[in-house]
Amino acid sequence: MQSPKDTGRYKTMFANLSAKKQGAFVPFVMLGDPDFETSLDILRTLVKNGADALELGIPYSDPIADGPTIQKASIRALGSGIRPHDCFAILKQLRAEYADIPIGLLLYSNLVLAKGVDTFYKSAFEAGVDSILIADVPLREAQRFIDAAINNSIQQILIAPPNASDETLSLIGEKSSGYTYLLGRSGVTGAESAVEIPAAELVAKLEKYKVAPPLIGFGISTPQQVSSAIQAGAAGAISGSATVNIIAKNLANSKDMHQQLGEFVATMKAATHL
Amino acid sequence: MNKLDSKFGEFGGTYVPELLIPALDQLEQAFLDAKDDPAFQKEFMDLLKDYAGRPTAMTLSRNLVSNPLVKLYLKREDLLHGGAHKTNQVLGQALLCKRMGKTEVIAETGAGQHGVATALACALLGLKARIYMGAKDVERQSPNVFRMRLMGAQVIPVNSGSGTLKDAVNEAMRDWSASYETSHYLLGTAAGPHPFPTIVREYHRMIGEETRAQIMEREGRLPDAVVACVGGGSNAIGMFADFIDEPSVRLIGVEPAGKGVHTKEHGATIVTGSKGILHGAYTYIMQDKDGQIEESYSVSAGLDYPAVGPQHAFLHETGRAEYYAVTDTEALNAFKLLCKKEGIIPALEPSHALAHALNMADDAEEEMIIVVNLSGRGDKDLEHVIKILGDDL
C-alpha cells in the first residue's frame, strides 16, 4: 500500500506552496454557523481570499477541547437545526465548486461512533473530505479510526502537543498522514491566550521523526504569529477562534461579515510568504 | 502506554485530547506508587477513621419490612463526615494531589455534594480548590454553594451548554487542559477517562469490605443482595467491588427513571442502553441519533448525569450485576417511609436503591438478606422535598 502521507490534495498543496516559498494559511469555521446558506457563503469567501486549505467543525453538544468562541459557534449552528447530514450536504456543495482545496474535518468522537466509524469515514470521503481529526481521540485510542481512514482514503490527522514525549512523536511519525496538528500551547481553543512559537528543538524533533508537515494551531490570531510560526519551521498555521469571532461579531450584517473575513484571510495569507 | 488496564471489556478508555494524556499517566503512576507506600496508606486510613468517621455503622431496619423472611440492612454512609460516601475517595485523591506536588484542585459538582467533600478535604490538607458548578445548579443549591465558600473553595458558575453537571465536567476538563502542571482534577465519580474509574473504585471499596465484615459478624454469612443507586456509580462500585468474586451475592444497581424511562426525562443510561463516548469513556450515555448528548433528568441531582461509570457498563454487559430503574415518585415514597419508620432522613439518591430493595423484600418467597447502601443523608434535599411534597406528609 502506498503511504497515505504521500498522496492527495495536501501533498499537492504543500508541494505548490513550497515551490512558491510560502506556508499554508488554514482558517477553521464551524459548518452550519450561523446557518446552512450563510455557512456556505462564508466558506466561499474564505477560499476566494486565499485560504490554502479549510479546517471545518461539525457542531457538537459537548466540545471539551474548545473555548467559548467555538462553543458558541456550535450552539449557533445547532440552534439553526444543523445536523451532521446538513454538514455533509454543505461539504458536497463546497467540493463541487472547489475541486482542489484540501478539506479537513475537526470533530468529536461520539459523532463518529453514532454513525458507525466506517460509515462515517465513507460518507466523509464521498462528501469530498480529505482528512479527519478527532479532538478527543489521543494516539492510544486512535488505531480503529486510522484503520477506517485508510480503508476509506481519508487521512487521519494526529495532534502533537507541546508536552509530547519522544515516544509520542515517534508514533506520530509512524502513523501521521496529510498534516500534523501542532498545538501551539496547552489549554483549549481560543484567541484569548496567544500561541507560543515552537522552540527550534521541537521542530527539529518533528523532522527527526518524519511526522507529516506540521500546521500550528491554538491561539493564532495575528499575521505576526503566522509569520513567526512559519519562520520557526511550521508548514503553516490554522486560525479558528479569530476567524469565528468575525462571524460572531457580524451576525446582523452579512456584508460586513464577508468583507472582514475576506480582509482577515488575505492578510493572514500574505503573512505566510517567507 | 497505560500501566493498568484502561478498559473494562469494550468500555472505558481514555477519550481525551492528547494534551491530557501526560497528566492522566502521571496520576496513574502516583496511584500505583501510593498503593505500595505504607506511609500514604496510613495517612489515608487515619483520615478515614479519625476525621471522616469510618467504619460507618450498619443498621438492621426494625419497621420497614413486613415480610418476615427478609432482613434489610442499611450501610450508613449517611453518617460519614460531609454527609455522604463522597468524602472517602476525595480524601484519597487529595492525598494523591499532594503526592504529585500539585497545589490546586479542580472539581465539578452537580448538587454540590462532591463540591462540599472536595472543599472540606482541600481545607484540611491546605489545597486551593476551584469548583465548577452549572449556573442553574448554583441557583438551586445555594446552601451547598455557601458551604463550599465557607471552607475556602472558589465556586465558578458554568453558563455554557445546559448549565448543569455535564457542562461543569466539560469546563473542569477545559481548565485542566491548561493547568495540569499545577492542578489535579479531582473527578467526583467512578466515570471519566482511565485511571479515574479505577482510582475512585479503589478509594470507595472499603464500603463493601466493611459490609462484608459486619454482615459476617451479625449473620455469619454473606448477603443475598447488595443494592445501591447509580448515577455515575461511585457508591455502587464501592459497595460492589468486594463482592464481584462472590457469585452468590447479587449486585443490584438502581438508576433514576425520573418521570419514566419511556419519557425523555430520566437518567437511566444502562437500562435504556445506548452506547457512546462522554467525558473520556466509552460507556452507556444519553444521546440522540446523531450522537449529540441529551440532558438527563432526575428528582435527585446526584443521579442526574447522562453517562455512567464504564465498569458498571461492563458488569451489566457480562450479566454480573443487574440494573433497574426507579421513578421519582417511587423514590419519594421510599424516602418518606424511611423517615417515618426508622427515623432516618436519607438523601434522594439512595432512596432510589431503597425503593427497589423494598420491592424485592415484598416479593421474597424465601429467606433473604439485603444490604442497601444508604450513600448519603437528606439534609441537602429538604428544601427541594418540601417544594414537592408540601403538606402531603
Explain what you see.
- By secondary structure, chain A is α/β, with parallel strands linked by helices.
- Helices cover 48% and strands 14% of the residues of chain A.
- Chain A has twelve helices and nine strands.
- In chain A, helix 2 runs parallel beside helix 4.
- The model of chain A is unreliable at 1-6 (pLDDT under 50).
- With 393 residues, chain B is an alpha/beta fold.
- Chain B folds into two domains: 18-49 and 86-200, Rossmann fold, CATH 3.40.50.1100; 53-83 and 205-389, 3-Layer(aba) Sandwich (Rossmann fold).
- Chain B has helices spanning 21-35, 38-52, 87-99, 113-125, 135-140, 142-150, 165-179, 196-202, 206-219, 234-240, 269-272, 310-317, 328-342, 348-363, 382-389; strands at residues 7-8, 11-12, 58-60, 70-76, 104-109, 128-134, 154-158, 183-185, 225-229, 250-258, 275-278, 281-284, 321-327, 368-374.
- Chain B starts with 6 loop residues before the first strand and ends with a helix.
- Classes of the chains: A alpha/beta (274), B alpha/beta (393).
- The interface between A and B is large, with 42 and 36 residues.
In terms of topology, how is this protein built?
The complex is a heterodimer of chains A (274) and B (393).
Chain A: H1 8-19, E1 24-30, H2 36-48, E2 54-57, H3 68-79, H4 84-97, E3 103-107, H5 109-115, H6 117-126, E4 131-134, H7 143-151, E5 155-156, E6 158-160, H8 166-175, E7 180-183, H9 200-208, E8 214-217, H10 223-231, E9 236-239, H11 241-249, H12 254-270
Parallel strand pairs in A: 1-2, 1-9, 2-3, 3-4, 4-5, 6-7, 7-8, 8-9
Helix pairs in contact in A: 2-4, 2-12, 3-11, 5-6, 6-7, 11-12
Chain B: E1 7-8, E2 11-12, H1 21-35, H2 38-52, E3 58-60, E4 70-76, H3 87-99, E5 104-109, H4 113-125, E6 128-134, H5 135-140, H6 142-150, E7 154-158, H7 165-179, E8 183-185, H8 196-202, H9 206-219, E9 225-229, H10 234-240, E10 250-258, H11 269-272, E11 275-278, E12 281-284, H12 310-317, E13 321-327, H13 328-342, H14 348-363, E14 368-374, H15 382-389
Parallel strand pairs in B: 4-14, 5-6, 5-8, 6-7, 9-10, 9-14, 10-13
Antiparallel strand pairs in B: 1-2, 3-4, 11-12
